[in-house]
Amino acid sequence: MLHIVVCIKQVPDSREIRIDPKTNTLIRQGVPSIVNFYDLHGLEEALRIKDQHGARVTVVTMGPPPAEKGLKECISLGADEAVLVTDRGFAGADTLATSYVVARTIRKIADIWGPVDIVFCGKQTLDGDTGQVGPGVACRLDVEQLTYVSKVERVDAERRRVRVQRLLEDGVEVVETSMPVLITALKELNKVRRASMPGMLRAARYKPVVWTTADFPDLDRAQIGLKGSPTIVAKTWVPQIKAVKTQMVAGDTPEAVAERLAEGLWADGLPQRLGWAT
């Protein structure tokens, strides 16, 4: 049976995010947290593979204790197990330190519940928006990686092969590779299901597995938390809102509207700025 690990992260709801005008930092107090929606598309694809081929789906996240809520949501959707990696030693991690801890967690999961065939991550998170953790985890695990996946065409459990479509800037690329593999999911990959009543009841009773730094005896503490995070935020600021002038152009006929619009653009100097007239 396939073993699939899905990496998720709880992030501030982007619809509720506000900026402190004095400090130019995010105001997190009172802002609800949600599961990063790209990660949910990764979970949905894992559950679809489980429905079709049979699989064990394990969800993992690194974060503070309240991140347990996001793991329970994944359990309600159909995940089998959930692991919360939480410790003050992990606090302040950038993408480099995060990928180190997540990769170590996946190795530990493989030791306990069996080898991992597929790892799903979201393309990026709504708060960091870097898209670096998934590829970083793949490099640390030394497995194949398929990024920006918009469709999983085929999973061959017997031959241990996966074929996907990758959405690129200039088209779609079809790629096939062997397991184990890490896949980063786009929102075009699927439509996330709703939790069932039995799933919600199971999630309400479920207690995620919790690991701290003590559960990783050979963890290199120089690679976790702030010590393992070379990223430095030198400055943050809120872009200034620029006023945009608008003017209604009216006329009795389309021709009259077009004529008045052309006159207005000419008077504004647009043709000259574009090099259309001398």
UniProtKB/TrEMBL annotation:
<dbReference type="InterPro" id="IPR014730">
    <property type="entry name" value="ETF_a/b_N"/>
</dbReference>
<dbReference type="InterPro" id="IPR033948">
    <property type="entry name" value="ETF_beta_N"/>
</dbReference>
<protein>
    <recommendedName>
        <fullName>Electron transfer flavoprotein small subunit</fullName>
    </recommendedName>
</protein>
<dbReference type="InterPro" id="IPR000049">
    <property type="entry name" value="ET-Flavoprotein_bsu_CS"/>
</dbReference>
<dbReference type="Pfam" id="PF01012">
    <property type="entry name" value="ETF"/>
</dbReference>
<feature type="domain" description="Electron transfer flavoprotein alpha/beta-subunit N-terminal">
    <location>
        <begin position="23"/>
        <end position="220"/>
    </location>
</feature>
<dbReference type="InterPro" id="IPR014729">
    <property type="entry name" value="Rossmann-like_a/b/a_fold"/>
</dbReference>
<dbReference type="GO" id="GO:0009055">
    <property type="term" value="F:electron transfer activity"/>
</dbReference>
<dbReference type="InterPro" id="IPR012255">
    <property type="entry name" value="ETF_b"/>
</dbReference>
<comment type="similarity">
    <text>Belongs to the ETF beta-subunit/FixA family.</text>
</comment>
